[in-house]
Amino acid sequence: RKEVEQDPGPFNVPEGATVAFNCTYSNSASQSFFWYRQDCRKEPKLLMSVYSSGNEDGRFTAQLNRASQYISLLIRDSKLSDSATYLCVVTPGGGGYNKLIFGAGTRLAVHP
Amino acid sequence: DADVTQTPRNRITKTGKRIMLECSQTKGHDRMYWYRQDPGLGLRLIYYSFDVKDINKGEISDGYSVSRQAQAKFSLSLESAIPNQTALYFCATSDSTSGRVLGSGEQFFGPGTRLTVL
Description:
The structure holds two protein chains of two kinds.
Chain A: E1 4-6, E2 11-14, E3 19-25, E4 32-38, E5 44-50, E6 55-57, E7 60-65, E8 70-75, E9 84-91, E10 101-102, E11 106-111
Parallel strand pairs in A: 2-11
Antiparallel strand pairs in A: 1-3, 3-8, 4-5, 4-9, 6-7, 7-8, 9-10, 9-11
Chain B: E1 4-7, E2 10-13, E3 19-25, E4 31-37, E5 44-51, E6 54-57, E7 65-70, E8 73-78, E9 87-94, H1 96-99, E10 108-109, E11 113-117
Parallel strand pairs in B: 2-11
Antiparallel strand pairs in B: 1-3, 3-8, 4-5, 4-9, 5-6, 7-8, 9-10, 9-11
């Protein structure tokens, strides 16, 4: 079983739609959680961290459910510029450093 | 100017050749990483370095070696390239101070090197 699993998509949505991605992780001791965004043929970049209480950044909302070991990302009012691959990332427990475990990513395509 | 640079950006080589991929950063970060990315798989860690004198194997280090020549430079070598090393390779950096703060897991990636081994 992969440490971090994501639905690869693609999710094809019209502009203005709301779309949600889920991610599950296998290590219950995982400590930190993130969403990275990767544009086609580009490097990954941090989109947002995911906190236990949930957090929001503009149109983006991230949620963490430790009991079920899943993380979600909600994008409201999708824009064409949101088209990208979204990577779910966790850090394993026990380490004092930020080693990152990446999911394979979920591809989003927003169309006019 | 980019904070994390990688050279070359694209490389085509033949089986058995020795290849070096280079990474430089101007962010002043102490930690550097090498990943590879394959379709359908997440980024996988090859090697990482916490400072010039510290080198650690990641999950897929076989067939690779690294050198941390200076705090700002971290190179990845394929001693004898094979076709299943065809992939997109990323270098990344992070600041050790951010690693001590839970929730701060930002790594900064270079633009990637697309390597094809024939």
